[in-house]
Amino acid sequence: METIKVPFVDLQVQHSHLANELSRAMEQVMKRAWFILGQELEAFESEFAAYCAVSHCIGVGSGTEALHLALRACNIGPGDEVITVSHTFIATALAISWTGATPVFVDIDAATSTIDVKRIADAITPRARAILPVHLYGQCADMDQLLALAQQHRLLVVEDACQAHGATYKGRKAGTLGQAGCFSFYPSKNLGACGDAGAITTNDEELAKRIYLLRNYGQTRKYQHDVPGYNSRLDELQAAILRVKLRHLDDWNEHRRQIAGLYRDGLRSDLVTVPTETAWGEHVYHLFVIRSPHRDLLQRHLHDHGVETQIHYPKPVHLQEACAKISNRRWHLPETEKIASEVLSLPMYPEMSKEQVQTVISAVNSFTP
Ligand SMILES: *Cc1c(COP(=O)(O)O)cnc(C)c1O
């Protein structure tokens, strides 16, 4: 059996570089022995808000919770519809269903793999309350048209920016374009904690206030509960870790973009298509996703050459068994169903060496079905 030469991601290299900084940050939290809703979280929230150039950031328990609480704070609930995509991680649709609302799936644009804005209008019913675009793989959806449609139909816009920390749309950061932006700091995201964590960004002060309440049992002051809330906090240890890592995010994203450039220049096979970069913003390459009609054979070939790959995602949300309980309708989503059989994510992490990138390129170029 061939050994792995190029892992899909490698968090160990990043953590060995940051070992001293991270240990110091964690030690301070341990010494203070204050673990929930403290000074590290407050500092991280203001630093991430400044990074995104937005007025509020609210740390929560995960990316899924960020989506859930943002929608709840927008008063979205039973009877409402939220327009989104099926070509995403299932958490997007789960968060909608947690509010009692129903996800309405729109097909994707084949070039960008994000929501096809031309198809949104047909999906708007009198029950529609919000559009929830997913900035998939690290690139923003086509937001100008989407925001115009939302305004025209009085819909809110909540962004799933869980794969797009630092990505831009016409100079503005992902997660700052609609009413609320939702981030995940799952360990392998572009900005990752050492456990579960998430955040919501917004310029709407009232919305921010409602989220502060919702994440902490609806508590206005100790043992005074004005709304039925949840328990969804970003803890002090994770906040301290994220503060260290945030200082490196731009540098890491730049490395990801350089690796993507090497892939683009090196991949020569007629049997694969490289991802499209749009003119409207910077892609931060959470994932480098190629397409091939021979995807499964290509994945096996790469595996045999020591290259680890993954598939994002092999089965669209609307075809998952769980979806019958969330949005029990027949959906016509041909691009979404087609892409699921063709996508393949190549190794991508900021610390990849040139040799590793070259190993991947050579392996892809030597593929014959
Ligand atoms: C990771 C991710 C989520 C969920 O984030 P968690 O922190 O794992 O809850 C939601 N949407 C997308 C697109 C993601 O990639």
Runs with pLDDT <50, length 5+?
A: none
Largest sheet: 7 strands, mixed
Q: N-to-C terminal Cα separation, in Å?
A: 21 Å
Number of strand elements: 13
Bound molecules: pyridoxal-5'-phosphate
Structural class computed from helices and strand pairing = alpha/beta
What is the strand arrangement across the widest sheet?
Answer: 1-9-8-5-4-2-3
Structural account:
The protein is α/β, with parallel strands linked by helices. 37% of the residues lie in helices and 14% in strands. Strands 1-9-8-5-4-2-3 form a 7-stranded mixed β-sheet, with helices on both faces. Strand 10 (219-221) and strand 11 (224-225) form a beta hairpin. Helix 3 (39-52) runs parallel beside helix 9. The protein is globular. The protein binds pyridoxal-5'-phosphate. Residues 62-64, 88-89, 91-92, 134, 160, 162-163, 184, 186, 196, 198 line the site of pyridoxal-5'-phosphate.
Mind sketching the topology for me?
Blueprint: H1 11-17, H2 19-32, H3 39-52, E1 56-60, H4 63-73, E2 81-85, H5 91-98, E3 102-106, H6 120-123, E4 128-131, H7 143-152, E5 156-160, E6 168-169, E7 172-173, E8 180-184, E9 198-202, H8 205-215, E10 219-221, E11 224-225, H9 236-246, H10 249-266, E12 288-291, H11 295-304, H12 334-340, E13 343-346, H13 354-365
Parallel strand pairs: 2-3, 2-4, 4-5, 5-8
Antiparallel strand pairs: 1-9, 6-7, 8-9, 10-11, 12-13
The structure holds pyridoxal-5'-phosphate.
